Amino acid sequence: MKILMVSEDLPGLQLGGLGKHVVTLSNALLAQGHTVDVLGRREGAPARCGLHGRFIGAIDLAHPNWKESQLACFNPVKRPWFARTLAATIHRHAAGYDVVHYHGHLPLVGAYIARTCPFVQTRHDQGSECLIHLRFRDARVCDALDPRACAGCIGTHPATHPGALRQAISAVAVDAYRDRTAAAFSRHKTVFVSDFLRRRFQQARPGADLRRARVIPNVVEMARLPTHAAPEDGHIVLAGRIDTGKGFAEFLAASHQRMPAGSRITIVGDGPQRAALVQRYASAQIAFTGWQDYASTVALTARAHLCIVPSVCEEACSTTVLEALALGRPCLALDRGGTPELLRYQRYPGQLQLAPTMAALVGAIAPALAAAPSLPDTSTPFGADVHQVLPQLLDFYAA
């Protein structure tokens, strides 16, 4: 097949889960003999992303100054404008491809893609119905469905009192966004990386036609993971972007002075909360490495006695959890979002332990460190290995 992957997250020096997913899929498809080109942003150094195929730099992110933050309301014109602009770029490059597969942050783009285009998109987060993509507000998961409530998630004005006019304008923007996204899902094929994401969108748009949608999880590439590493006794590893919703601050606050004797924590990653957390918590027991490349991060994970993914937001399909499971390391996470669906990828019973609260997660650390290490079952392939998942994706392409 001849496939055009599309993502405004590429190129980039510090790829998030979405960008890594595109690179992993593209390289695996190339290895199987398919032709894969990647359409990304104009600026950047694509060679440093790890892509093996041809990169086309054509997506232009330059845009007018929408002043949403200053006006403290979502602009009804902004996201449709971006989606039309991106759709026009895709149309200019789509000719001759059997599949055009979009991984990005504008789910409504499919509403502006011609029905004759073999367009597929993958939804990696809750951006199908949430304009900030996270559904996390006031330090907790947001369950609000009324679009007027979304006005509290933007702007420099007091977030809890955006005013009736700003609420009305934001409601128009959110309703139109969700309607166009539903139209995109009806018009073209859609992959949700977890059933949780599909159900969440249906809650926001109960009448949405999702008959062209399928759930296919995120992937890891087993060939890039260490084959064996002896765990370091008492070593706990947390990896990810240190930002709102990711739970690093909440975990450190809950575990402060409660960690078992002899344990030590390594936190891998960067983000806007890192500096403050370093200043408050860095010690002989807690080390912050900053951003590390993929090989270094998975090497630390492979040597961990215990991996913790402390996200307090609802993760769609955590690649960090999948990497820990693939490497045979025990993992603790909160029981929310799409994470419970990853229990199917355990390599031995009890490998992934889900806690109802952060306090319960911290309480599970000592027993997890005290338990004798279990050996992963390597006699069967890992279910989320990219080469195990690719047949599902190729079947969906051809359906």
Summarize, please.
The chain is an alpha/beta fold. It contains twelve helices and 15 strands.
Describe what you observe in this structure.
- This protein is α/β, with parallel strands linked by helices and 399 residues long.
- The protein folds into 2 domains: 230 residues, 3-Layer(aba) Sandwich (Rossmann fold); 149 residues, Rossmann fold (3-Layer(aba) Sandwich), CATH 3.40.50.
- It has 12 helices and 15 strands.
Q: How many separate structural domains?
A: 2
Shape: globular
User: What would the CATH topology of the largest domain be?
Assistant: Rossmann fold
**Order of strands, widest sheet:** 3-2-1-4-5-8-9
Secondary-structure topology with pairs:
Blueprint: E1 2-6, H1 17-31, E2 35-41, E3 54-59, H2 68-71, H3 78-93, E4 99-103, E5 119-123, E6 136-137, E7 140-141, H4 164-187, E8 189-192, H5 195-204, E9 213-215, E10 235-239, H6 248-255, E11 264-268, H7 274-281, E12 286-290, H8 294-303, E13 306-309, H9 319-326, E14 331-334, E15 352-355, H10 358-363, H11 365-370, H12 386-398
Parallel strand pairs: 1-2, 1-4, 2-3, 4-5, 5-8, 8-9, 10-11, 10-13, 11-12, 13-14, 14-15
Antiparallel strand pairs: 6-7
